[in-house]
Amino acid sequence: NDRPYAASSFLSVAISRVFGSAISGKSSERPELAKTAIPLEATISVLPCRGGENFLRRLFEPLGYEVSTIRHALDPKFAEWGESPYFTVTLKRTAPLYELLTHLYVLIPVLDDEKHYWVGTDEVDKLIKKGVGWLETHPEKEIITLRYLKHRRSLARIALAGLLGEEELEQEEPEATGEDAIEEKLSLNEQRLKTVHSLLREMGAKRIIDLGCGEGKLLRHLLRDKHIEMVTGLDVSIQALERAKDRLQIENLRPKDQARIQLLHGSLMYRDKRLEGFDAATVVEVIEHLDQPRLAAFERVLFEFARPTIIVLTTPNREYNVKFENLPTGKFRHKDHRFEWTRGEFQAWAKSIAEKYGYIVEFKSLGEEDEKLGAPTQIGVFTR
Ligand code: SAH
Fold first, then answer.
1. Residues 6+ apart with CB under 8 A from 92
2. pLDDT tens by residue, 52-82
3. Is the per-residue pLDDT at 251 higher than 50?
4. Which ligand 1 atom minimizes the distance to the CA of 210?
């Protein structure tokens, strides 16, 4: 985890708090001075540049900065590990201070290609406000906007329209990043939700808990199904739960439906009474986010204590990864994945816990099946 050490959206927040009046470019006593160009130099000790030095230069040079960089090795002791995405960057330009601070504020999270908070329409307004006067003419405005808004294309389109004064927009295909993008062609996520839902229906599950529910895509599917009485989502991430709450629009549901859904904050690492009393639990693309040595804790929490009659669990099939053209060899499908299993590894694990805790397990595959490599997603259906 590089978050405590690398420049990120946390630094942008710090800039806006510590240099709040400077970044606004206003001074009540000496307004002309705040607008005056002065020779400035900024050094960012550890800046993650996803997209490399070339991308860094494409962001700052069109704004008139002189850019110098030192690229850091992943580990200076092991040259064979290669380069890291981290640079020490110095930017020089004669400009008003508020411009430099604004450029840093917007472009640091763009280079990092990440944000520590949920991005919604507020963030569009912020970008339009901060981007006025430079972003609308920047040659990389599309990618800046897209990354700043965490790859939410619909928001990026609104922001660009706002910046360009509603001019006609070119439809440009953004670069693919992240798990969804890698699996996009197959629309695996959607297939996964449908398959898990229909498995639950076939088995007649009425009270369902979705463990590691994320932003609640499965919950939304299940909630629409009137055969299902109660839907609960649990996640360790408050951000994910807030997003789920947003997406499900719980406040706007009819009272009858409001009573059918609940969101819980909790961890699958700890025994929790709230997980008891469900017909079925789903664990969709979650176990690979848990540290492998701690899987045993999760197994006991779910299979020994919560003990639903049905458990539907999905995880990537690592063998299939070679088929994803934009996934470098040996890499996982998502940067938070701690492991990805072959079919053999998953089945051995699933059989051993089924036996240990008195369940029967059946395996299913999901997505386009390759004769040798199997399907992209593997499913274990546990019943007792
Ligand atoms: N099931 C969702 C999300 C999968 S991403 C979907 O298919 O779209 C994995 C989710 O597991 C994330 O939302 C993450 O916050 C959650 N997670 C990771 N560790 C967890 C833990 N220890 N307890 C509960 N949830 C966890």
1. 39, 40, 41, 65, 66, 68
2. 999 999 999 999 999 999 999 999 898 889 8
3. yes
4. 1
Rounded alpha-carbon distances, angstroms, from residue 250 to 239, 241, 243: 16, 12, 11
Residue 194 has pLDDT above 80, yes or no: yes
Q: Which of 236, 275, 288, 291 to mutate to test the pocket of ligand 1 (most atoms within 8 A of CB)?
A: 236
Q: Which atom of ligand 1 is nearest to 214's Cα? A: 13
Q: Give 246 Cα–ligand 1 centroid separation in angstroms.
A: 17
Least confident of 52-61, 172-181, 292-301: 172-181
Go through 94-122 and write b for each residue having 16 or more CB atoms within 10 A of its CB, e for each that does not: ebbbbbbbbbbbbbbbbbbbbbeeebeee
Tokens linked to 366:
């999901």
Global confidence as pTM: 0.59
- CB of 127 closer than 6 angstroms to any ligand 1 atom: no
Q: Hey, which bits of the chain come out as E strands?
A: 38-48, 66-73, 83-95, 207-211, 230-235, 261-265, 280-284, 310-316, 360-366, 377-383
Torsion-angle region of 138 (φ positive above 0: left; ψ -120 to 50: alpha; else: beta): beta
304-326: pLDDT as tens digits: 999 999 999 999 999 999 888 77
Mean per-residue pLDDT, 22-31: 90
Residue 382, pLDDT > 90, answer yes
Which residue owns the Cα nearest ligand 1 atom 17?
Answer: 212
- Cα of 234 vs centre of ligand 1, distance in Å, is 8
**Ligand 1 lined by 290 (C-beta under 6 Å):** yes
